[in-house]
Amino acid sequence: MRCTxxxxxxxxxxxxVGLLGLAPPIEAQEPPHRDPATETxxxxxxxxxxxxxxxxxxxxxxxxxxxxxxxxxxxEVARHYAAALHPQGEVHFTVEPSRVMLADGAFAGxxxxxxxxxxxxRIALTSESxxxxxxxxxxxxxxxxxxxxxxxxxxxxVDYKLETGKSYVLMLSGGSDNVLGVAIGPVHER
Amino acid sequence: MRLxxxxxxxxxxxxxAVAAAPAQDEGRRELGELLVRDSGxxxxxxxxxxxxxxxxxxxxxxxxxxxxxxGEAFFNTSFIPSPSExxxxxxxxxxxxxxxxxxxxxxxxxxxxxTSDDQQxxxxxxxxxxxRDDGSWGDEPVYGPNFNPFAISGVEPxxxxxxxxxxxxxxxxxxxxxxxxxxxxxxxxxxxGELHPLTAISPRLAQPIIGMGLLDAVPEHIILAxxxxxxxxxxxxxxxxxxxxxxxxxLRLGRFGWKANQPDLxxxxxxxxxxxxxxxxxxxxxxxxxxAQSACLAGPHGGDPEIADADLADLVFFQRVLAVPPRRGxxxxxxxxxxxxxxxxxxxxCHVPRLVTGEVPGLxxxxxxEIYPFTDLLLHDMGPALxxxxxxxxxxxxxxxxxxxxxxxxxxxxxxxxxxxxxxxxRSLEEAxxxxxxxxxxxxxQFVDWDKAQRTALxxxxxxx
Lengths: 190, 465
Prior knowledge:
Chain A has one domain: Jelly Rolls (Sandwich). In chain A, about 10% of the residues lie in helices and about 35% in strands.
């Protein structure tokens, strides 16, 4: 790697913070540090064109739930949301995040969603956060994950197999920003 | 009386099975400690297979569980540059290799080296050493104890690492060809001037952290009882302790790290915080900056020390109480055959199956346990092919500590690609064995002479660990 900017260097290092995805039953693998200059959106192995197109739309503001029985905002598929998160220390998690991280300086929150047809869906985020999708209080196993430091707006994606008729909770934790872009959409195979 | 043919055949098969079962049991009995399921004794993990590598030992109090959880949070969470409102975890760098523990100790498993030219090593740390005027070895004077390819904003990273790989080819006795990749390391784009002309680079891959609490609890006399530095028994295997000069000049037995250069879990942890993340602790209050690195010395720091004592204690405690996964496949005849081959090749002379722990106050699951880590925690000369040429305390440039093998078979559960040996140069267990030399040359020679079924059985055995 040839790091050209100090910010780039730090951002590159930040790629290793454990926020780049989840793939239970085995835990997420940390990708090695890469040069942000080579980490463009084109470098995703997945077809991310539809996800990027949604994240480039105007975002609808939502405030995530801080838990403790609070009502959760309902997200629709194929929409871009600017989700306001809470200081993690103030969040009462429905289920503890599958990766334990310090609340110190981190942001978290819950949202609810469902899907119109069963299939493989992608959670797409504009900044770093740990992602858990819950149903009935259990974690779902992720099908795939990826992240690119140098890709704006798609910083991270996590894919899940989801079923219609079920209500899911999207639980974000360990986030670096108090507001981040979220989009949920069907996975388009390349 | 003549039995119908099918019935006779069935009885014959059953008789064979009855005869074979005791034979297999007998074989297992003879192999004894090579085939023990609970590698960590009472500290072997149970329950959810999905979380087997993150499981804690049994019998923790509520207070201990909380401490372990806090420590795990520190292990998983990135340190960030100062100043920050996140005061418990600021102070990253100024120079560093990684922002958190987990990115190197990948999912608590082993690290991975760069696999393409656009990657800088994170889990693979390049330690540096150079001879001093008095002939002893110390840190490289300009770049310090290890090479940091990353830095916070406003400070120059130390440079870039380039890894060249060249093939080494050979043939097993049965005619099957093999190929290894020999890595060579170059430091480029140096931002702080020239390296000492005799600088030696010692690449070290992050190791799994399971069972560290048990290894920390093995009494010194148990380890030293196996030392044979002058090979008095003439078996070609020496086994030397690495005596570490601790603060105050006291000598302590090294047991952690690829060259056993750290005496205990806390020392191992604070060394990594210091050299790889740029985090100071009450054990290491100086920043990891040399006199040549003025911006680093003047850079923002996150307090003195940057990690509070209580948080450091939790971080160490988390690692101490991680359980060891149970073995798998021990009824597989191929695994049993592999165990016999492991013994036949003499592997267990260094990869000692069984050790025992002493008392660990407050942690009965770690205390007085028979454990099966497959290491003697001693240094062995592994020959020129693996040598880094950099002495480390009392370890020579070709000596390495016998790495524990427990959990080896779980590595593939955690990653699509698994890399072995001190710098991840081996892409398979077979390659790892082929890299053995020096004191292990005879064992390697046997492996090369074996047929494919024997080689496969040995690997199967290793995968049962």
